[in-house]
Amino acid sequence: MNTVKIGNVEITALQDSPFLMNPRVLVPEHADEMLVEWGHQLDARQLLMNSITTYLLRSEGKNILIDTGVGGRRRPGMPPGKLDETLAAAGISPSEIDLVIHTHLHIDHVGWNTVEYADGKSRVFFDRARFMIQQIEWDYWMTPEMLAEPRNLHLVECVKPLEGTGRIDFRTGESAIDANLTFVPTPGHTPGHVAIGILSAGERAVIIGDASHHPVHLVHPDWQVPLDRDRELAARTRAKLFDEVERDGSTLIAGHWTYPGMGRIVRLDGKRSFQAL
Ligand SMILES: [Zn+2]
């Protein structure tokens, strides 16, 4: 199922690309244990099939896109995204997106902000949208030093061009997005990383961004991930987040877990497990 309703909010999972994950890269200190626990899902190269998924929310009459995937450009070590096709298949044109919200500014979350067109020019793909970005996240990444690093080319290509458009709304910490949606600060993966909390007509969900890259963290939230800028803070953040999701009975929505990444935390033999919807 790739569409769910949480109260009056409709959420549609839109895959930008499948993504192969190596346990030795994800959790190097616990890779051998992970290879045993998840052996049933490994491919012949001992890789796990993950996803780069964005989520389209319809809330209060607006189309809101949470993150924009890796984008259509060829990038070393990354699959090319196809969110343009996935959106079209869902019957949505880029011009119909009212608001783009970034959980953080990593390469696989900002990619479709801009597109190179046939005339060789790059333009904002969602040409009517406003963009919501956490101020802390912007301030961390968008310095001259960061922008000069070759590995941050995606910031130059996909984030910097927004600056002159007057369409960015900077937000700070926990704040309401509309009557149904709230920013939930979840720092660690990046300094200004946020989850998106949904509460509508008594139903709850949380879009967790990159607070976790794989459901292995439901059982082992403390397994540290080198992709996290502050590994210890990220581990504490995801432990707290999963506690809250389980306590509240929220739907958990995770853009890097197996597509569409929407489900619930259940207990099997006392251990947390992800039950996809
Ligand atoms: Zn990511």
Explained architecture:
The chain is α/β, with parallel strands linked by helices. The chain has one domain: Ribonuclease Z/Hydroxyacylglutathione hydrolase-like (Metallo-beta-lactamase, Chain A), CATH 3.60.15. It contains eight helices and 15 strands. It has a seven-stranded mixed sheet. Zinc ion binds next to loops.
Question: What's this, in brief?
Answer:
The protein is an alpha/beta fold. It has helices at 23-26, 31-37, 83-89, 135-141, 144-148, 153-158, 216-219, 231-248, and strands spanning 3-6, 9-21, 48-59, 62-66, 99-101, 114-116, 122-124, 130-134, 168-171, 181-185, 194-200, 203-207, 251-253, 262-268, 271-276. 21% of the residues lie in helices and 31% in strands.
Keywords:
six-stranded mixed beta sheet, 15 strands, alpha/beta, Metallo-beta-lactamase, Chain A, globular, 8 helices, seven-stranded mixed beta sheet, binds zinc ion, 277 residues
